[in-house]
Every structure is written in structure tokens, then in C-alpha cells.
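[job 4471] stage=fold_predict status=RUNNING
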Amino acid sequence: MRVSENIKGIEPSATLAVAALANELKAKGHDIIDLSAGEPDFRTPAFISEAAIAAINAGKTRYTATPGIPELRKAIAEELSRRFDRQVNPAGVVVSNGAKQALFNALFALFGPGDRVLLPTPYWTSYPALIQLARATAVEVPGDPARGFKLTPAELDAVADDQTRGLILNSPSNPTGAVYSLPELEAIMRWAAERDIWVISDEIYGEICFTGSRAPGILDLDPELIRQTVLIDGVSKRFAMTGWRVGFSYSDPALAARLSALQSHATSNICTPAQYAALAAYNAEPLEAEAVTAMVRTFQKRRDLLLDRFRTHLPSISYVQPEGAFYLFFRVDQFYDAETSDSIAFCKLVLEKAGVALVPGAAFGDDRFVRLSFATSEENLEKAVLRLADLLAR
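[job 4471] inference complete, writing C-alpha cells
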């Protein structure tokens, strides 16, 4: 089939492909523990779902302004203002169909042919494809596993050139769970500002942090350092609302207007009842918000259990200490051989022989590792580690 150059080389999301295979095996009766999913395993809090139902019953099902209903943009701005203790302008908020569309909007609007975008590696699996769709070039910049793969300005400077126009940051990281400290983040943003480089900061896991109440973000920094930045966030991880498809970008209002114009020709506004659900989430009263903070405490408890079991049953395996999100990125190339020669083959073997679904590190730009999601029950984590230990011992 003849297709446009725009999509040549674009492959389906690897994480979704693994989940699909795991579901297929489950449907055939196999006992599968799925540790591939990148979403919380909790129900959306009831007060959020009820707000969407109320909106539908009230007839709030028509088109809205492309960047979102004014109440939601205002609520997001006020929540950011409280979180970062600074004034945030609602005019800079554009509500999109998940954080993924917000990323696409920013990359497509800011970069094009000939532009190079630095991509810390390992990276979330969709970043390279989104950069390619913008007709720009992704430049992978490998980090040091000993530092949780976090990059330094010196490492970025070593690969930057006159065509470098952008940098994607993701903290807490998917797939590693690494979190940039405020000094580390400030150093990178200062470097980018001095080089006139746009930074897209994906902070979708910002509230799922185990080193403090939240991960440091670009809005913690001096406004002069973040003049050329786009913040990406949304409700999917923090409020267990992955299927609602509500994300947003925050940027200078002039850029936000351009992002809104782009979106107006792609999708227009996002689902109207979903906007009212997100409005309830961002306007949550303290007692209602407790349902959200309880999820974070559960993730931390699971992480601690998982690391303890790895130390006990898989002591030879090294991993990145997760400081946020809900992933464990661990190294498995010591188990490669002629038949199992890469992370894809390793994950296939583990799925078929141990009934555990993992995501190959090749999807994230580092074939030595695999990703495990601990967005599942403690019982599943216990069983999965024992199955892995048994298989690898053999």
C-alpha cells in the first residue's frame, strides 16, 4: 500500500501491543499476570464520575470552545497556582484529548523539517513517533543507569548543535520512575534558556512521587528560565481517569492560541461531559481529594514490597530505584542467549513460560532493560516475582 511520507515508519504503541497480546492469552484461558499496563488499576473516584453523569443529565453534551470550557481552564490554572505558589493565567491552558494530544500539538506547532529535538533515553514510547509526525528529527541522548538515566547539561551540550530546537523532559519518568531534583531541573532549564531551546516538560506523573508531596516542576523555577516551555499534564494518572482522555498544555498565551488553532482543525473540543468530570477533579474538596492521595500511598506501598521481593528472590538483577510513577525498569541482558537475544524475545519468553506480561526496553530506547508496572495488586506482584525467579533460575 502506498502511504504518505508523514506516517512511514510509524509503528503501533509497544505498550498497547503487549497489553493486547496478554489479553488475547487471557481470553484463551491462560493464567496471565499483566504488568504491562501504564494506567492505575483504581476506579475513577465516584465524585468525578457523578459530575459527568450530572452534566449529561443537564444537557451539557454540545460543542464547547476548542481549548476547553472556561470553568475548566480556570480550575486548572488555579490548581497550578496553588501547587506551584505562583500566578497562572487560564489563557495559557489548552485542554486536549489526553496528554498525548497536548504533546502532539506542541511538537507539531514548534518543530518541523530540519529541526532536531533532544530525547533523553530511555523515553516514553510515543515521543519518537510524535517527533517524526512533526517531520523533525529525534536525537536520542542516553543517560547513565547509575543516575537513574537523568541527564546533565554537559551531556546535552555534547550532542546539541545549531539545528537543535527542542528538548523533551519527563519527570517522574516513564519508564524509569526517576525524578529530577529541583537543582537538577534548574540546571537543565538554564542550559536550554541560554541556547534558545524549547523545552516540553511532561509532568503527567508529577503527583505520584515518593520523595515528597510532588515532584519538582518547571513552574517552580524563575519565570525567565521558562519563557520557552510547554508544560504537559492531565487527569489520567493522578485521578485514575485514563479512559476519559483529558490532558492539557500550559504555555505562554500567544503560543496557547496557536495550539488551540491547530487543535480546532484536528479534533475541536474534547468530550464535553469529560470536561465536567475533570472540573470536579480539579475543584475537589479536601475529603474528596483524599481518594486521590490514598492511591499514591498505595503505589508507594506496592513499590516497597516489589523492591523487597526483588532483593530477596532476584538479587542479581539491577534496576532504577523508582522515585515516582508506578514502574520498575530492570536490567535483563545478562539472561540473553542465542534464542533469547533481546528484550522483545525476553518478554515473549516470560509471557509464554511464566505468564507474566512485561514491556521490552526496546520500546523505550534501551534494549538491555524491561519495564514492569506495579499498578496491580500486592498479590499479583508477589506471584509475578516468584514466577520470574523460577523461570530465570532455570
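[job 4471] summary: The chain has a mean pLDDT of 95.
[job 4471] exit 0
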